[in-house]
Each structure stands twice: as structure tokens, then as C-alpha cells.
Amino acid sequence: MLTDTLATLQPADRAIVSAVSAHLDNLTKPPGSLGRLESLAVNLATQTGEAFPRVSPPGVLVFAADHGVAAEGVSAFPQDVTAQMVANFVAGGAGINVFSRQIGARLEVIDVGVAADVSVAGVVDEKVRHGTANMVEADAMSRDEAVAAIEAGIRAAERALAAGCRCLIVGEMGIANTTTSSALLAALTDAPVAGLIGRGAGLAESRLAHKQAVIERALVARAPDRDDPLDVLAKLGGLEIAAMAGAYLGGAARRVPLLVDGFIATVAALLACRLGPATRDYLVFAHRSREPGHAHALAALEAEPLLDLGLRLGEGTGAALAFPLLESATRMLGEMATFESAGVTVGNPG
Q: What predicted TM-score, i.e. pTM, was given to this entire model?
């Protein structure tokens, strides 16, 4: 499935840019006066191949998994919280549930590697293994397990699209996953770990040096090959990050806009782009996280996010909050009058 998905990936349709741009300039407004909303509209058109794209309804995919590195004391919360939050997601009580309801999204929760047995109705069981190994002591998972997790993400994207979703928001839950994401980012970009780590879900400032040391030990012990993204993923983890990358690949292969959340989601997007470079054309970056590493991840993808609200929750919440901007961009294209249709005379500006 992964091989077929990578073979299907194609760049976005740049041939449509001139027609969409001309239409934007003929709408009843000064050219360019709606700023980045206009460039977003053009971007959505190239992604879908449609001059008048549609992004509703959105699909939200939340992948959950645990990380063996949590045993190193790098998180403010115990590992049990992952399974507890999965139950909260399906009960409708989490932040992503609130914002998904607000935007009319289809939401699916997928267990790809929670350490506990999750026996909650409403959770899609795609468990590859019960959490990753501690990357300080062993490879997080095998290469085959990494591929299996990616393919679980591809299947989730395909289910959402089969249900009629026109845009995907990919979120996550996994205690210690900012540690894993920082390790992945350091390995993929060769950036110093010190500039990539933050407090995650609320780690005390006094523990940041320990978190940095744990990641640096893991990078030395695992020695991942930065030119082989699957090697990096298998050695460092995590299962939900692999599945997120798979969802991006699956959505890009079907030419669907992919609204990227914060730090962890952007690292997963970077991984997807390393596996299938054309994926980059289908990414829309929702917001700038408070996590220090997010700026580095965005820079690696040459990305400028839509919002900057100081968020660091994850789950896909920032992307859900940004979704109305995509809806506004498409409605501007499809519903705003042109000068001709409105009978508005445009004089010679000279």
C-alpha cells in the first residue's frame, strides 16, 4: 500500500493558477486586497485541480500511541493518560471534539499503538504494537512496524475521503510525543537538540535539560540514517507520528488539502515529504505552536502558518481552528460577484 501510494503522488496543478488569479482580480474588490486569503484560494485550487474548490466537510483523524521513552521521565503526565484521553475523545469531551463539532467535521479516533488495551466503542483498532520501545535502549520499532503504522494512516485517510470529506485535519495523542518529535526533527535536519525542545504538555523548566540529554543519548545510540526516513522513523518512533505521515501521503495521493496542526503534526508532515516530496504541494499550515521546535520544522518545509495564537495542545485543535479560513477562501472564489456580474464599472486607475 505504501509503495502504491508513493507511486500515485503527483505535483499540484500549477496550470490552473493563471485562470484562478484572473478570476480573483475580477471580483468586486481591489486586486490583492484580501491578502493571504487570495493566495490560499489559489493554493486550494492547485491542490484539488478545481477552479472553484470545496473543502467541506472536513475530516479529522486523531491517531493515538504510546512511547517507550516516557520511562525516562520526559513528560509531565504518566503514560496512562494516553488511553484515558482516547476514551475522552470518543466520549466527545476533548478540545478537538469541541472544535470538530463547530466546523461540522467527521472525526475518527485510531489506536495505532496505545500501550494499554483500549476497549472503548468508537475507537478504530489499528494497533501495530503496544507502544514503542524506549529509543534510548533499543530501536523504537522495526522497519516493518513503521511501514504498518504508515499504512494505517493511509487507510484512515481513504476512509475519510470515501465518507465524503474534502479536507483532512490530522491530530495525535501520545504521552512523550514531543520528545519523539524533537528527536525525529533533529535526525531529519541535523539541527541541535537544544533549540528544538520545549515543555510539551507542561514539563517543568527544570526538567528541560534532562529531556535534551535523553534525546541526545538516543540519537547517539540509534545513529539513524537521515537520508533514509524509514530508518529514522523506525529507530526513534513513534507509531502515531508514522500514521500521521501516512494520512498526509494518502490524502496527497488523492489531491485533498491537508491542514497541518502544530509541532508534532509538522514533524509528521516533514517525514511524509521526505518519503514523497510531492506531498508538500498539498499541505496548508494552520498555526505556529509555542513549542520551540515548531519554528525549525516550519523552516525545513518553507512554510508560513495561517495563525499564531500561542497554542500547544495538539490533537489537531489548531488546524480545526484555522479551517474556517479555508472555507472563507473557497466561498470568496465561488460566491463573490465579479465587476461584470455586479454591474460595477472599473475606471482607468491611471
A: 0.96
